Amino acid sequence: MILTSSSFASAEDYGGSSWRRSPSVSIALERVGGGSYSKLASSDHDDQSASLSAFGIGSVNVNPYTAPRLGVDYITPVGVTVGGGLGFGRFALSSKSGNRSTDDGSLFIYTLTPRVGYRIPLGPRFDLTPRAGVTLAGGSADAGDHSNESLGVFAVALSGEVAGAIRLTPSFNLLVGAGFDHTVHANSSREWKTTSSGGSTTTKRSEDIKGSLWTAQGWIGIGGYL
Predict the structure, then answer these.
(1) Residue 131: which of 22, 28, 21, 20 has the closest Cα?
(2) Which end of the chain is less congested by CB atoms within 10 angstroms, N or C?
(3) Number of folded domains that form the chain
(4) Quick check: 91 and 60 in contact, CB under 8 A?
(5) For residue 29, which of 218, 219, 170, 193 has the smallest C-alpha distance?
(6) Half-sphere CA count of 196, side-chain side, radius 13 A
């Protein structure tokens, strides 16, 4: 068998105009794996900071910024994209001793990221889409039957990322991306219940979190074009 330039051309054009058709909607499962680095620094004490490094595929993730999310984006005829990403997760721990079951606590996290971008077709099978947006992230945790207290946090971050789509078929993509989230506002809340002879009382207190928090991530995912 002799391969010629025309043979390669026909292979590249497999599927006809489907490869060259400009998609109008992108649906993706983003950040299902990869590596990330997060750093939290206190504004009250210059020498106090904490960092978190994580790496995995489909693993449990307690950082809302790096948690898997569903992304839906509309692609205009000129290449501008408008859409967002939504992610959430809940983790619960329980134990059992004989016939007695104990709630040992739970954690709930969520993210919502409205965003805009621009799709750049670099070839018939590869697209690059830089995009920017605002991420609303939060979570809550409680100790179950061991405490009447629960904690919560809410944060707003400026987010930017570059997502690359490797088109395995005209409508199915393997995704690779790099993202950065920088928190501009964060608030923590604490709620607890006290019980007395007069009944139970719920008290809630909240305060702003002072300092800086940012997360950098390289991620992989899957998606499709409509």
Answers:
(1) 28
(2) N
(3) 1
(4) yes
(5) 219
(6) 4
Residue 5 inside a domain? The answer is no
pLDDT, tens digit, 9 for 90 and up, residues 13-51? 444 566 667 899 999 999 999 999 998 887 665 667 788
Model confidence over 51-106: pLDDT tens digits?
888 887 766 677 889 989 999 999 999 999 999 999 988 888 888 877 888 887 88
Number of H helices, E strands in the chain: 1, 11
What CA dihedral angle connects 77, 120, 15 and 18, to 10 degrees? -10
Helix (H, G, I), strand (E, B) or coil at 59: coil
> Is the residue at 199 inside a domain?
yes
| Within a domain: 7 | no
Asked whether residue 16 is domain-assigned, the answer is no
Contact 23, 225 (CB under 8 A): yes
Helix (H, G, I), strand (E, B), or coil: what is residue 98? coil
Backbone region of residue 147 per phi and psi (left: phi > 0; alpha: psi in -120 to 50; beta: other values):
beta
Angle at 138 between CA 136 and CA 144, to 5 degrees: 165
CATH number at residue 84: 2.40.160.20
Instruction: Supply the pTM of this predicted model.
Output: 0.82
Q: Which residue segment(s) compose the domain that 109 sits in?
A: 21-225
The first and second tokens of residue 50, run together, are: 């904490």
Measured distance CA(29)–CA(178) in Å, rounded = 15
